[in-house]
Amino acid sequence: MAGEDPGVVITATAARGAADDGTPVTQAMETVDMSVFYGSFRAVKNVSLQFRDHRITALIGPSGCGKSTVLRAFNRMNDLIPTSRVEGRVFFHGNDIYEESVDPVEVRRRVGMVFQKPNPFPKSIYSNVAWGAKVNGYKGNMDDLVEQSLRQAALWDEVNDKLDQSGLSLSGGQQQRLCIARTIAVKPEIILMDEPTSALDPIATLRIEELIQELKDRYTIIIVTHNMQQAARASDFTAFLNMDQDRAGQVVEFGATAELFTRPARKETEDYITGRFG
Ligand SMILES: Nc1ncnc2c1ncn2[C@@H]1O[C@H](COP(=O)(O)OP(=O)(O)OP(=O)(O)O)[C@@H](O)[C@H]1O
Ligand SMILES: [Mg+2]
């Protein structure tokens, strides 16, 4: 690892220009030589990745290698950290989200984020889901939107008779699905998930994994996980990041999940996925 420039191994031809049957595919998100700094510290170095539309891509790698930093760069959440700076390009459906003319609030609506710890507002279940749409001046039928979002988040059946109860009264797994419903309600195109199940028990975790599979018909999903089984089970593509000797995170390998987990092209990847480090 240290002293060696891992370069990037792209084995996921399907993630690039064409699907297996040759039809062209579109990328929801693409980074070109993206680096992210905190002050003078480069946390992420020259990341070039493509995230295919309506697929689930997992970001894996040891603690501190910059996974959350990468994710936050995708909806300009890093803007909220004063020392943070992004170099290189980040394209959302072909448009650079760091162009001056781009409104970060609009980016955050279209690229939603679900965090590690479920973080419902101390408000009713209904208000939690309606909140973002309300802020955005949603003109449609709010009851319908709340129901539809809760259904998509696989929570409706458990909460439809208690929508006025606090979101905080729900179990951890339900709270995380509520946060997913809240994200869905503003109709994003991409959902970023930063270790969304790490605070949940195995049953609630599987529930969320099933839900993620259902969501990919409508959304592109980028998920950070420390759980190798989860990455292997739940994602179509996987990017493995690791730190160089300056502690800057880089992409070591990117590929179709089935391939990366069964035939990793790099020894570093193999060591990580088999639990030899990280
Ligand atoms: N707000 C910040 N200010 C300064 N440095 C930061 C900030 N956030 C993260 N870093 C640094 O950037 C690097 C990458 O951090 P990041 O949180 O992205 O890693 P990670 O891969 O998500 O780790 P984990 O798996 O532990 O969540 C680390 O060295 C971290 O200390
Ligand atoms: Mg993190």
Largest sheet: 7 strands, mixed
Instruction: Show unreliable segments.
Output: 1-8, 10-16
Strand order of the largest sheet: 1-11-10-4-9-8-7
Give the mean pLDDT.
92
The tally of strands reads 11
What is the terminal-to-terminal distance? 12 Å
Radius of gyration using CA atoms only: 19 Å
- Provide the β-strand percentage band: 25-35%
Identify the bound ligands.
adenosine-5'-triphosphate, magnesium ion
Given helix and strand content, the structural type is alpha/beta
Order of helices and strands: EEEEHEEHEHHHHEHEHEEHH
Broad shape: globular
* Residue share in helix: 25-40%
Helical segment count: 10
Question: Any overview of this molecule?
Answer:
The chain is of the alpha/beta class. The protein contains 10 helices and 11 strands. Strand 8, helix 7 and strand 9 (220-224) form a beta-alpha-beta unit. The longest helix has 14 residues, at 202-215. The termini are close together. The structure holds adenosine-5'-triphosphate and magnesium ion (MG). Residues 67-68, 194 line the site of magnesium ion. Residues 67-68, 194 line the site of magnesium ion (MG).
Keywords:
278 residues, alpha/beta, seven-stranded mixed sheet, globular, disordered N terminus, binds adenosine-5'-triphosphate, binds magnesium ion
Give the topology.
Elements: E1 9-10, E2 27-38, E3 41-52, E4 56-60, H1 67-73, E5 84-92, E6 95-96, H2 104-110, E7 111-114, H3 125-135, H4 142-152, H5 156-159, H6 172-184, E8 190-194, H7 202-215, E9 220-224, H8 228-234, E10 237-243, E11 249-256, H9 257-262, H10 267-273
Parallel strand pairs: 1-11, 4-9, 4-10, 7-8, 8-9
Antiparallel strand pairs: 2-3, 2-5, 5-6, 10-11
Helix pairs in contact: 3-4, 3-6, 4-6, 6-7
The structure holds adenosine-5'-triphosphate and magnesium ion (MG).
Adenosine-5'-triphosphate binds next to helix 1.
